Structures are given as C-alpha cells and as structure tokens.
Here is the input.
Amino acid sequence: MADLGAGAPPEETLSLWKREQARLKTHVIDRDTEAWQRNPDFSGLQRVGGVDVSFVKGDSVNACASLVVLSYPELKVVYEECRMVNLKAPYVSGFLAFREVPFLAEAVQRLQEKDPSLVPQVLLVDGNGVLHQRGFGVACHLGILTDLPCVGVAKKLLQVDGLEKNDQHKEKVRCLRAAGATFPLVGDSGTILGMALKSHDHSINPLYISVGHKISLETAVHLTHACCRFRIPEPVRQADIRSREYIRRNQGLPGAPALGQERTLKAQWQEVCPPGVSTEPMDKGRPRKLLGPGPEADLNAAATQAPRDNEAEAGDQLELGLLKAQAPPVSELADCGELQPLSTSSLGSGIAGPHDKSYNNPRSWTI
Here is the structure.
C-alpha cells in the first residue's frame, strides 16, 4: 500500500478497517423495504433526516456533527441537534465512516431515546453509499448502524471501478437538460453503482446518488429529487447550514468546545402532522459491532487532513453560499449541556469510538 504520509494510521489499523467494512457490507439491503417506498408519491413518509459534519476553519480535529429532521413533503425543520465533537481518526480516502459515522449514529440514538416520534424514516447522507472503493461508503455504514434506510448524496464523482470525470462523462452531464434527468454510473465491472441526477433546473453539476441501505436506487433518486428546492437536497443542506452556523457562534469560546444544542419544533411538527397520524419510529435493530476509528488517538491529524471523498468543487461552494443567503436565519438554540460520551453498548455491542476508553487499546477491539 502506498505511503499515507505522516500521522496516517498504521497498516494494522487499515487492515482492521477493511475487514470491518467487508463484514458489515454483508448486511446491506439494496431494495425497498418500507411501505412508503412503494408508493409513487411516498404516501406514509412523514420524516426525512439529514446529517453532516462541518469543520472549524484551520482545525482538522474539532468539528460539528449535525442531525436535522424535516417534515415531508413540506420540508420544514422539526428537529435539529448540533454538537461539537473531536475527530481522533485522520482522514483516509475510502474510510471516512471511521472518522465521522460514530458521532452521527449517536445523534440518531439520542433522538430515538428522547423523542421517538421524531425519528426520521430515512436519512440523506452527505457522502457515498455502494459507490465506493469497496462498495461500502459512509451512507452504507450509517444505515447498517442505525438500521434506517439511507441514501448517499455526493456532490463530486468518486472515481472508482473505471468511473472517470472524462470528456465522455462531461458530455453526459451536458445532456442533462431539466431537473430530474439522470444517467447511470456503470463501472468497468458492469455494475450500476449509482445515478447522476440533475437536481435543479439551474444547477450545472449533477448529484451522484447511491444506495446506502434498505432502499432501491430508483427510489433513492426519486426521493432525493423530491427533497430538492435547490441543488442540494434540503435535509443535507439544512444540516450543513445549521452546523456551520453553530461553529460560527461558538468559535470564540475558550478551550475545546463541548457544547450541544438541539431544538424540537413541536408547533411546526403538530402543524404538518396532526393528531391521529402515526409517528411511530422504525425498528431500532442494531448490528452487533462497529470498529472504532483506530488506536492512534493523538495522531497529527492536521498533517493528514485531506478533502472528503465528496467535497464540493469551487462552483458548488459558490452555489452553497448563494443558497445560504436565501435561507432563513437560524435563531439562538437552547444549550443542552456538555457532551456526555455514550457507552459502547448504546449503539450495539463492541462499538468503539474515539471517546471510548477502549479506543486507545487495539487489543480491546473485536471483529
């Protein structure tokens, strides 16, 4: 394997990560499993979630993990949580989940325990699903861990299995004339790994949609398009906007921030989901184990910081800035106190995260 540079995880850790991805991949379901998915208008779908991780500028360790839940089809935010987290694992292409997913899964777990009526029925993830070097991206990882349907929504093409952003690909993109237009992403293996989607009439670059868990590609594309007011689907867009706003408001605090915030917009939820409408959450099943980010707790992550697999291009950043200018201001949110680490049993047995005491001891990990 090529040298990953200073501060990169040791080969032993990368090997463990690969084995864990291979093990969890066997649990991925790439077909529709929920009744609402079989209805053309998604009748029965009431709550769509979005997750994102935003970074403090110039800091590769401190980040804000956010979860938002929107009503469907109104796309109004009915719940949000933002928490500052410390990312101990460095960025390594193809292993983003080991850096970010434990914090996102814990956010879902907290909501399940606190207010099951607001648990999303599907999650849109800023990242890839089966469109991945080993067929198991961050959307698959989060789907398996939460047992929720998940959709990978990437802003940039991950070039795997022969997929390239070459002239042929660019010509296909130019042929996407109207919102909702698509073309399949077929790898050299002959497998359809995802779909390029023109999500908005005025967007230049497509989104790259792939299956995460418990949803078909066709449904994933249809749902993503239905959630787009702009180029980025509203659940992911709101998660990004609110996490960045939280960082801006808390960057001046002394010391490492460890504050959480959340807002449950009960009035809005009651407005879009009147009494008598079922709000029961989905099954809370969990996989048995999730390998943690690795034993190098004090890695020089700054030295290995790299763009995420799906990082937006410069044009996307400009578009996101324009979208944020149109977004309603985020009001001051209630402080919910210090982030309390969850036990390894809270998300399934044997789940090790960077805040887990067993994290620094590779011998304590089990596969």
User: Anything to note?
Assistant: The CA atoms of residues 118 and 279 lie 7 Å apart. The chain is about 30% helix and 20% strand. The first strand starts at residue 47 and ends at 55.
